[in-house]
Write a structure and sequence with these properties.
The chain contains 12 helices and 7 strands. By secondary structure, the chain is of the alpha/beta class. The protein has a domain of 210 residues: P-loop containing nucleotide triphosphate hydrolases (Rossmann fold, 3-Layer(aba) Sandwich). It has a 7-stranded mixed β-sheet with strand order 3-4-2-5-1-6-7, sandwiched between helices. Bound molecules: guanosine-5'-diphosphate and magnesium ion (MG). Magnesium ion binds next to helix 3.
C-alpha cells in the first residue's frame, strides 16, 4: 500500500516538474520576443520584419448546445467550481478561464486588456459587456498552460442574443488552438445553430476541432447511446462543409455527476490528452519558429549590410562623377576666359597672374585664343554667355550626378552586427537548451 502511495507521489512530482518545464519553455520563449531591450519583436521592427509573439498558453474554445456540460467540464478540469453550471441561456456570455496568482474575476474591458489578441472582438457590438475572465490559482492537470473559452449555450428558435453569437464564435475560432464541440444526448444535441457554427468553423479549422459526446452517463443503455451517436454522426454527415471520412467521438462525462451509476466508458482522459498533445505541438512550433525567426533576422542583417555596402560604392561612384563634371564646369569658363583675355591682351590678366604665367598660358592656350580672333566682335558677348551657360549646365549635372543615398553610420552597422551575434549565439543557444529540456522531459514522460 505504502509502495503504491509512494509511486503515486513520485508520478505527481514528475508531472508537476514536467509541467513546470513546459511552462518555463513557453514563458522564456515569450520573454525572448517581448523583452523591451533585446526582444526579437523589437529587433524585427528595426529590420522591417514583423514577428509573431508566441503565446504562453494554448486557447481551448468550447462550443455546444445549451446545457451540454461545457462549464461543468471546465470545473472538472480545473478542479474548482469556477463556472456556474445549469445557467439560464439569457445570462450567458463568453468566459475566459485561466490560471493566475490569485482568484479574481475580470470585466469585459479588463479581459480585452489581458488578451490584446482578442481586442478586435470589441467591434462586434455588445460583446464586451458579455465578456468575463475568471482567474483561478489551480495548477491541476495542464491548466497552467491552458486558457479555456466558455461560450454561451446555443439554442434554436426565437432566442435573442444580446450580440452576434455566431460571428463571435467564428472569430474566436480563428484564435483558438483547439475547438471542442460538445454534443449531449438529452438536450438539443442536433440544434441547427450548433451544426451551422460547427460547419462554418470546420471550413477553416477542421484539424483543430474535436467532437465529444458529453454527459454520456445520461445516454441510457449502451444501445441508446449508440443510437444517439448514430443520429449525431448522420446529422453531421449531411453537412457538405463537414466532409470528414469518419467522426471520432469519444463519450465523456464528469465522473462525479454520474448519479445513475452508468457503466458507460468514460473517455474524458481523451480530452486531457488532446490538450496535452496540443501543448506539446505548440512548444515544438514555438521553438521551431524561434529558430526560423533568428535565421531570418541574421539573414536580414546580412542583407542590410550588403545593401549598404552597395549603396556606399554607388555613392563613391556618384561623387567621382560629380567631381569630374564639377571640375569641367569650373575649368571650362576659366580656360575660355583666360584665352579670351589673352586674345584681347587684357592688362588685368598680367596684373593678376604675372607676366611669367601669362607667357606660359599664351604658349599653351595660344592656338585657342586665336580662335577668339575669328569670332566677329559683335558676337563675342553671346559666345561668352553661351560658354558660361554651358559651364553652369555642367555644374548642374555635377550636382545631379553626385547625389548620394543615405548609408549607415558605423555605430548603426555595429549595432546591427551585435543583433545578429545576439540572435545567433545567445538566442540560438537558449533555444537549443530549451529544446533539449523539452525532449528530455517528453522522453522521460514516455518512460513512466
Ligand atoms: N449527468 C451528468 N450531468 C452533467 C454532466 N455535465 C454537466 N451536467 C449537468 O448538466 C447541466 C448543464 O451543465 P453546464 O455545464 O452548465 O452546461 P453548459 O450550458 O454547456 O455550460 C448542469 O445541471 C450539470 O450539472 C455530466 O457529465 N453528467
Ligand atoms: Mg455554461
Amino acid at each position: 500500500m505504502s509502495g503504491k502511495v509512494r509511486q503515486k507521489t513520485s508520478a505527481n512530482a514528475a508531472d508537476s516538474s514536467t509541467q513546470s518545464i513546459n511552462e518555463r519553455i513557453l514563458k522564456e520563449c515569450h520573454g525572448l520576443y517581448t523583452d523591451p531591450d533585446s526582444g526579437l519583436v523589437k529587433i524585427g521592427e528595426s529590420l522591417n520584419l514583423s514577428l509573431l509573439t508566441p503565446r504562453k498558453k494554448i486557447t481551448v474554445l468550447l462550443i455546444g448546445n445549451h446545457s451540454a456540460g461545457k462549464s461543468s467540464f471546465i470545473n472538472w478540469y480545473v478542479e474548482e467550481h469556477i463556472q456556474r453550471t445549469g445557467v439560464a441561456i439569457e445570462t450567458q456570455g463568453f468566459t475566459f478561464v485561466t490560471s493566475g496568482r490569485k482568484r479574481e474575476s475580470l470585466t469585459g474591458n479588463a479581459t480585452l486588456h489581458l488578451y490584446p489578441d482578442f481586442e478586435p472582438l470589441r467591434q462586434i457590438e455588445g460583446v464586451t459587456d458579455y465578456l468575463t475572465t475568471e482567474i483561478s490559482t489551480s495548477k491541476q492537470k495542464k491548466f497552467s498552460l491552458v486558457t479555456f473559452v466558455d461560450t454561451p449555450g446555443l439554442v434554436d428558435g426565437d432566442m435573442k442574443y444580446p450580440f452576434d453569437v455566431n460571428k463571435s464564435i467564428l472569430w474566436l475560432g480563428d484564435l483558438a488552438d483547439l475547438i471542442f464541440v460538445f454534443f449531449d444526448p438529452i438536450g438539443q444535441a442536433l440544434c441547427k445553430r450548433t451544426l451551422n457554427i460547427v460547419e462554418a468553423l470546420s471550413e477553416k479549422h477542421a484539424e483543430r476541432m474535436k467532437f465529444f459526446l458529453s454527459k454520456a452517463d445520461e445516454a441510457g443503455m449502451e444501445s441508446d447511446r449508440q443510437r444517439v451517436m448514430m443520429q449525431i454522426v448522420q446529422e453531421l454527415c449531411k453537412r457538405p462543409g463537414l466532409n470528414r471520412t469518419g467522426f471520432d467521438m469519444p463519450t465523456i462525462y464528469v465522473p462525479s455527476m454520474n448519479q445513475k451509476q452508468s457503466r458507460c466508458v468514460n473517455q474524458i482522459d481523451e480530452v486531457c490528452k488532446e490538450i496535452e498533445k496540443t501543448i506539446n505541438g505548440t512548444i515544438q512550433t514555438t521553438l521551431n519558429s524561434l529558430e526560423r525567426d533568428c535565421d531570418n533576422i541574421a539573414q536580414k542583417v546580412e542583407q542590410t549590410i550588403e545593401d549598404d555596402r552597395v549603396t556606399s560604392s554607388q555613392n563613391l561612384k556618384s561623387r567621382v562623377r560629380g567631381a569630374t563634371y564639377g571640375f569641367l564646369g569650373m575649368l571650362l569658363p576659366f580656360v575660355l576666359l583666360t584665352t579670351f583675355l589673352i586674345s584681347t591682351q587684357h592688362k588685368a590678366l598680367k596684373t593678376i597672374l604675372g607676366q611669367d604665367l601669362v607667357d606660359t598660358l599664351t604658349i599653351y592656350l595660344g592656338p585657342l585664343s586665336k580662335a577668339w580672333n575669328s569670332i566677329p566682335k559683335d558676337y563675342t558677348m553671346y559666345v561668352l554667355a553661351a560658354i558660361l551657360g554651358l559651364a553652369l549646365f555642367m555644374l548642374l549635372i555635377a550636382k545631379f550626378v553626385s547625389r548620394t543615398k543615405p548609408t549607415m553610420s558605423r555605430k548603426q552597422r555595429r549595432s546591427l552586427l551585435e543583433m545578429k551575434d545576439y540572435v545567433q549565439s545567445v538566442v540560438k543557444t537558449k533555444k537549443q537548451t530549451l529544446y533539449s529540456d523539452y525532449l528530455k522531459q517528453s522522453v522521460a514522460e514516455q518512460d513512466l
